[in-house]
Protein 1
Amino acid sequence: MTSPTTDPVAAILADYPVLILDGALATELQQRGCDLNDPLWSARVLIEEPELIRQVHEDYFAAGADVATTASYQATFEGFARRGYDAEAAAALMRRAVTLAVEARDAFWSDPAHRQGRPKPLVAASVGPYGAMLADGSEYRGDYGLGEQQLMDFHRPRLKVLLEAGADLLACETIPCQVEARALARLLAEEFPSARAWISFSCKDGEHTCQGEKLADAVAELNEVEQAVAVGVNCTAPEFIPALVAAAHGATTKPLLVYPNSGEHYDPEHKCWHGHADANRFAEAARGWHQAGARLIGGCCRTTPQDIRAVAEWARPAAGH
């Protein structure tokens, strides 16, 4: 068994009160003219316009993010195969997702002016749930009808590629159900013991995962998994975050992470968003999440570098934000 490596999250939290995550990747790619109406979603840009992904990572670092989350959420062997990419080509695209983030991080950090009052940023390889591969919205429902072993078999090859590509940790995110979190935790503990990951659930209200299990139970089950360096919630309406943080805080000793959506609401029938985002309001809410116990804070769908900059202004004022 490989000896566990240093926990990169704990190393930053030892010196800083908040580890600032990035925000949405897809939202920024659409702002730059990318059409993401595709089962591959932002993974499509890995094929067509990878330079745009690097630019988005750079923008988040400039805004104050301590983490770049890679464009691999929807990058799976099965999804690429449907587009005619064999396993070798699919693995190369997954590695590209990590490389783009590493290149953006290293370029940013090479400027001494960027090092004032902040840690060297991390690269987190995004691992979306099984439902993201289906591209039918089931990551917001769970209930795949698959067992733990089947989910381990699905995730195993992608985890291997992403870890070998040079990411600092994995971002196992938008997990809708305990069985999938359990499958990921077992894979990490049994087959990738030196890996580090955060595991983040999608939730439908202030108490339950999207499948309907209690978040407190889901995070408690991960408490003894050494490879899981943080647990929490993402891709969830921000109004549910205070109650979810409170529930998780009492159930685990691990650092809590939250990166909810912007607060706008998606209309799946017309495929559009309603409501207005407000970076100052998001940042003020984020301050409350931190006071409630969250240590890793960022944004998910529809959040932007402006939101992350506004969080950094109170979380890391010494860095000049």
Protein 2
Amino acid sequence: MKLKIKHTTTYNFDQPVPYGLQQLRLTPKSRAGQAVVDWQMSIEGGEIQTDYNDHHQNRVTLISFDAGATSVVIHCEGEVENADLHGIVGKHTGFAPLWHFQKSTELTRAGPNVRRLAKGLRDEVAEDVPRLHALSARIIEEVPYEIGTTHATTTAEEAIEHGCGVCQDHAHIFVAAARSMGYPARYVSGYLMMEDRIHQDASHAWAEAHVEGLGWVGFDVSNGYSPDARYVRVATGLDYREAAPVSGMHFGGAGDAMGIDIMVQQQ
């Protein structure tokens, strides 16, 4: 399946910004089952300073804002050809060792709520992949998808307390619970072609767990299945902060508004 993607991020500032610096994790990479045919990035109101691969092998682009900018627009566009590997990413690669993905973070701490969700699964389900799918089902039952109740700094524990959340929360809960069960696990950001719309106002997030004999396997808690050919994998990390599409800071500009428009469709 060949997918065409357009992703535009717009910042509007109420006052000129003297300085700004952003890290962009917006460039997908070719891997087993995913071939990047073409990908281009351009900036209005700023310029690309450098790009590099981080310790998760994410492609990171560092941009600066033009001095005095009142708006910055980041354009990404390209084509990716995917095969359906039933969520299997495969063997571990990269600079970070596998044990690193059992490390807890502020967003993925396994407190009493997370441990309760994972309790008993090792005894109830004998095999790894069915066990992790059962975990995914428990999470979406306890934390149904609902926008507007959580935010970028909501932890896995807090999302369970809220009783609802979005794909970022589901991924954090899954990662925290899987690690508590002994699996290396990580957060994934990327794109999903939806059946009912072309335009979206946010990228997608899911999780991966490392299963002996298979390697990394993806689980999309929000949708209840493993990623297929409709998914474009862009960045991974211990949590959202390490895989965020855009992060950084700016000085000046007392207020700002950010808008996102994403278009994903089959070619």
